[in-house]
Design brief:
single chain; about 290 residues; TIM Barrel; globular; binds flavin-adenine dinucleotide
Length: about 290
């Protein structure tokens, strides 16, 4: 099913549930891939409409991504959404990738620029996600999603400018926006308001990262430049040695976050599962 259909056929106004997974690293014997599907099977109870699969910088895990996408579609019978980054890729590679997706009858794609590699070796065919979106729109019938940043992209000159570029992505053909993770809903609500004012009128789906351990939160917040609210920081600092406490706290924190988002009418919830079912399924159980 295409993105537009997924988000317009909302059942009883319940939010559309979607998950993000990534191809496991160093999986020489394939056991991590099998484990990923064990976890995904556990998450099927919540009737997800979409599962997105991340793309490694420069296409480093393309073969694994394709296999996961195929199995999501054939084994789980859920619409897969491959991510694709363009910053280190040529037009020729993109064309080939689009052909592969067509072969597997994939309908959706999340089109991204990707992070600039540390050694700055970029391919100059595409500079920004908006250019990739324009190309995919011209060359395929795929339904296209884009990334949005409630607190601004880490390189953005300002949030306003970032939203201006986000608008360009919608004008070039993006139909849905999935956001960067955030731990303070205030940023999401204010972002929605600013996007509406800027004339962005497509669904903006919040990305939720359930906190499961201290290190992950710190790493993600630094990497993505997102605020960790002081109250959250205090609890994590105080209990950082108590892994079980952090896990339980993370579930209850994300449950509250999701409930407030639902109460404010979000069209969907996109969970950054980190390839594990437990936290996401607990949150979804709490919400039902
Ligand atoms: P863009 O929209 O191109 O923006 C990049 C920067 O350029 C921003 O600062 C923007 O303000 C600026 N900009 C945009 N257009 C212009 C313009 N015309 N002129 C000047 N400046 C401009 N990364 C991966 O490697 N693999 C993944 O699978 C992946 N999945 C993601 C999923 C989601 C939901 C999100 C939110 C991010 C994901 N990322 C992934 C990270 C993403 O690739 C990085 O954040 C990357 O740095 C920016 O990608 P983008 O598509 O948002 O870029």
């Amino acid at each position: 099913m295409k993105l537009k259909e997924i988000y317009s056929s909302q059942n009883n106004k319940k939010p559309v549930i979607s998950y993000e997974v990534f191809p496991p690293k160093d999986d020489t014997d394939g056991s991590k891939l099998e484990q990923l599907f064990v976890e995904l099977h556990k998450l099927m109870d919540f009737s997800p409409s979409l599962i997105s699969v991340t793309y490694g910088a420069g296409g480093s895990n393309q073969t694994e991504s394709i296999e996961i996408i195929r199995r999501i579609k054939e084994e789980l019978k859920v619409s897969p959404m491959p991510h694709f980054t363009c910053v280190s890729t040529s037009t020729k590679n993109i064309k080939e990738y689009l052909n592969t997706l067509q072969k597997f009858e994939i309908e959706n794609i999340l089109a991204l620029r990707g992070d600039i590699p540390e050694d700055k070796t970029i391919c100059h065919d595409f500079h920004y996600a908006s250019e990739l979106i324009e190309y995919i729109k011209k060359e395929s019938t795929l339904s296209i999603a884009a990334a949005g940043y409630p607190e601004g992209h880490k390189e953005a000159v300002s949030l306003e400018k970032d939203i201006e570029y986000l608008k360009q992505k919608t004008e070039k053909g993006a139909e849905i926006i999935y956001t960067q993770l955030f731990f303070n809903n205030k940023h999401y609500f204010s972002f929605i308001e600013k996007c509406e004012k800027a004339g962005i009128d497509i669904p903006i789906i919040p990305g939720i990262l359930p906190i499961t351990n201290y290190k992950t939160v710190e790493k993600m917040a630094t990497l993505c430049k997102v605020e960790i609210p002081q109250t959250l920081k205090d609890v994590i600092e105080k209990h950082k040695e108590d892994k079980d406490y952090i896990k339980e706290f993370g579930i209850s924190y994300a449950t509250e976050q999701c409930q407030q988002l639902i109460d404010n009418g979000v069209r969907g919830l996109h969970f950054y599962t980190l390839n594990k079912a437990h936290a996401t399924s607990e949150i979804l159980c709490n919400l039902i």
